[in-house]
Design goal:
Arc Repressor Mutant, subunit A, Double Stranded RNA Binding Domain, cytoplasm, methylated-DNA-[protein]-cysteine S-methyltransferase activity, about 15% strand, 2 domains, MGMT_N_sf, Methylated-DNA--protein-cysteine methyltransferase, globular, DNA repair, alpha/beta
């Protein structure tokens, strides 16, 4: 199978949008590891409708005018991975979940590590919001797009504008901690979580 791709610039770097037919298959990061998402041969196709629509919706998201995506998706992975990725789609804008909560949602509390591995291989970044999965203590933990971009996305969803959040990226790139800058005061160092993990939704808005 040959995949079609389109490149787009964004506040989190250049993204590669990938389609299989008329469905979105992947959104890859600028510095993505080559084998993180395994796909076949690709050709550039800037006129593919699904890729044009994906770019439009992503731009609206970064501009702060879109909270939910409406795109046909084609997840390619194991059955377990697909369950985890589908669970990601249920995390509302501005909220977070722990790996344990996702494991409970897919029906296997003992699969926390496997959930983490599947989360790390999520092929459709941002749309399937793996950036909304954080450590049980509120730590941001790892992220394929880099912790600076994870912070940017969470900050954007917490009400901080993309331009304000983008100002932090260069400061925190390569740094595993929150930036010690004035802008960082507006971004939660540890996204708010509810006291109970039993089906309770943690929210960056505090509700």
């Amino acid at each position: 199978m040959t995949y079609a791709f389109k490149l787009m610039d964004s506040p989190v770097g250049q993204l590669k949008l990938v389609a299989s037919g008329e469905r979105l298959t992947a959104i890859l990061w600028e510095n993505d590891k080559p084998n993180r998402v395994r796909l076949g041969a690709m050709i550039e196709a800037n006129d593919r409708p699904i890729l044009i629509d994906t770019e439009r919706q992503l731009n609206e998201y970064f501009a702060g005018t879109r909270r939910k995506f409406d795109l046909a998706l084609d997840f390619q992975g194991t059955d377990f991975q697909k369950k985890v990725w589908e669970a990601l789609l249920t995390i509302p804008f501005g909220q977070t979940r722990s790996y344990t909560e996702i494991a409970l949602q897919v029906g296997n509390l003992n699969a926390v590590r496997a959930v983490g591995a599947a989360n790390g291989r999520n092929p459709i970044s941002i749309i399937a919001p793996c950036h909304r999965v954080i450590g049980a203590s509120g730590e941001l933990t790892g992220f394929a797009g880099g912790l600076a971009n994870k912070m940017l996305l969470l900050s954007l969803e917490a009400g901080q504008t993309s331009l304000e959040a983008a100002a932090n990226v260069e400061t925190v790139e390569g740094n595993r901690h929150a930036p010690q800058t004035p802008q960082a005061e507006h971004a939660p160092k540890k996204p708010a979580r509810a006291a109970s993990s039993r089906g309770t939704q943690a929210s960056l808005f505090g509700n």
